Each structure stands twice: as C-alpha cells, then as structure tokens.
Task: structure prediction
Amino acid sequence: MEFTDREKELAALEKAWQGKEAQLLVIFGKRRVGKTELIKHFMKDKPHVYFLGQRVNGIDNRRWLADLTADHFKDDFLKTAGFPDWRAFFQYGRDRIKTRTVLAIDEFPYLNEAEKGLPSIFQTGWDEYFRETPVFLILCGSSIAMMESEVLAEKSPLFGRRTGQIQLKPFRFAEARKFYPRASFDKCLEFYALAGGSPSYLKRLDPGRSVLDNVISQVFPPEAFLAREVEFLLREELREPRNYFAILKAIAFGKSKIGEIVNDTGLDKGILHRYLFTLDDLQVIQKEVPVTERLPLKSRKGLYRIQDQFIKFWFRHILPNRAAIEEGRYERLLPRLESDFPALVAENYEKLAVDIVRAREDLFFPTDAAGRWWNREEEIDLVAVNEERREILFGEAKWSARPVGIDVYRDLKRKAPLVDWHNGERTERFCLFSRSGFTKDLRELARKEQAILFQRDHLVET
Result:
C-alpha cells in the first residue's frame, strides 16, 4: 500500500530541508505509528544515510553505522576501520558532508541503552563538528519517555540544539479512511474501531471483507502479525508486564475508576498509581475528566481509558481466549465478538463527533475544549465550549439502526442545565449525530430551534 497522508509533517521536513544551515530534527511517537515510513518517504530522493539502532552493544551499532556510511560515500577504508567511537563519526561527517545530506538515526533510545550518556556525546558532536555543516540530522525514537527526557527536556544536553521536532500521532478517523478509499463510512468506522489509527495495523485489513472475517484471518491465527503484536509491544516497553496486563484487562472490561481497578487486580492503590502513570506516559491509556472541569489535573472525577483501539480489542477478545485461539476454535468466540463489537463502533462514533465539530466550527464557534461530560447520574457524549464568547454546545451521538427521534433531543436539553459552566451567562447550542438519520418530527423541531444534525459525518439539511 502506498504511503498515506502525513502531508503536514512532510511539509515541515521539506521546509527545513530548503534551508542551508545544519538541522537537528527530533521525530518521536509510539510504536507502529509510521515514523520510519515518514522518514524513508521524505529522504527517498535525497542524499541520505539511514541507520536503525539495535539492542546490541555500542561497538556493533557503530560498526553497522560505519558500513552504511561507507556505502553512501563509497569509502572502502571506512568499512575496514569503522567508527571506534562517536567522535570519529562526527568528525567523519564534518569532513565528508559538503552538500545537504540526511543522516537519519532511528531508534535512538536503543543506542542510549547501550551507551549511557549518549545525549551528552551528541551534544558535543553537534557543537564541535556538525553545527557548521549542511547536515540534516534526524534523531527518531519510539520510547516517548526517553525521547522527552533525554532529548527534548530542558535538562537534556541536547536541549537548545534541536532545530525542530515532530511528535507523530496515530491517525484520526478522517485520516485513517484514506486507507480504504472505496469502502463505506460504516466499514471504515468498524475497521477503525478494531485497528485504531496505527497505519501498520490498518494496512493489514482487507476492505473487501467484513471486519469479522478480518479478525478471523488477520488477528486470531497465532501465526498472524496482529495475533501477538500487543504482547510484543508491551513486553518491549514494560519491566513488569504481568501487573500491567492485569490493569489493562480491567480497564478494557470497563473498570475505569481507581477503586474498580484495585478491586479487579488486587494491586495496592499506591503501586497502582505508579503503573497507571507509566501507561499514560507511553500513551497506552489516558485519564479522562469531564470537559468542563476547571482544574482537570486535580479532578477526582477521572476515568481511565485505553487510548489504542487495538490494544483494547486485544485485551477484550484475544488475551482471555488464548486457549481456544491456539486450538483454532474460533467459532466459540464469534457470538460474543458479534454482540460486543457494535458497542466498540458506537464508542468510536461518539469520539468522532468531537472531530466533526472541530472540523465544522463554521457552523458553531471556535472550540477551546471539547469532549465528554458526566456526573454520578448523567452523561453527555459531547460538550464543546468557547470561554471568551461564553458559548457551549451539547451533543449526542447514536450509532443505531433506527432514526433518532425527538426523545433523544429532549433528553439532551434536559441534561444541559446540569453542566455547571457560566450558568445564566452562556449561549447554548445543540447538535445530534446519527448513523441512520432522524425522524421527520425531529428534523422539523431542529429547524425551529436551529439545532444541527449530522448523519454519519454529513450535515443534514433541515
């Protein structure tokens, strides 16, 4: 499949390439998000050396880097001599790079594991050797915590040296749809509910088959790439995977509060907070608070959600059924999967409503914040606010086979006063999202009250 999207990131790289001064760009993001593909696509028609760091000792990494560098510069002597240390690498680059050349070092965290203090060495190399050259140095890594602390943070030796940074994030739904240009909205949303925004996963799904057929062929078989993908990624990042797995399984099955996770896992509350912080740092989970909370970091209403759709799916349907899957008895899993999956799709449609509102601010207002709202008794799928204008939007999203009627709209209006935000001073707007459209009575009422309606992601004329 061809390289998809990332126009913004490519444009930023191309703009930096046009300059004459040395560039040190940092690209980071979670695994399977497409960092390597972005780099390769950017440098394919440019002079470049691309090196993928390995979890080996520093000597071997430098030896392989020397081989690749020697191939680029056609230097047989370098193949024999190698780089005895990193200073030799920087000195060689200074002496040989006379025109704009990309030096891309992928998985920089692996190099740092093998040789502690590497950011300090790169700082010296940059200051003493590379700064006055036309080099285009890219440092890339999947360990978000390491890249932020050792490369991007103010205390990092490389702080102030980088000329730019790109945090590559998973595709949002509108971007993920481009992988399946001929597929319907419904199928694309189903695929997104399974694979999330990871291009590596999206590429493996066949839009010519149903989502369940894809699960049977691409996820269930033990030999399939996606079968053990989550287990591999988490064991790669985490030192105590057993406890993390227990936590993620609990969250995947709806245990979203601290107390619920403690009861489900048996972990001490103090230890649990440390595990949750690590998972949040890896962007595996996120703590969600009602969108109108004034001090979200101190809010006691936080709920924990798994960010990655495929990780959530894996913990709900793969991990608990490993025995049946290993034996190939997939038929036992299908009834539960068929009953459970529509709820995952509906959940993604609710998230998509936020994207739709932000993409169509011309219909509403510029949003300062948008997301879910809840209290102990009630929940609203979408609340968006503009602080300066004191405008607030309330929305509900229904992924069902029946058209949405007046009852849903009236219930949304009933819940709106429960949201404590500039009460008595605000302008209220209302919006509904539906898979299957709206009843005639609701369309007429929406027209009278200037409510906005969307069927799937298209505006409905009232």
Q: What stands out?
A: The CA atoms of residues 365 and 386 lie 7 Å apart. Residues 334-359 form the longest helix (26 residues).
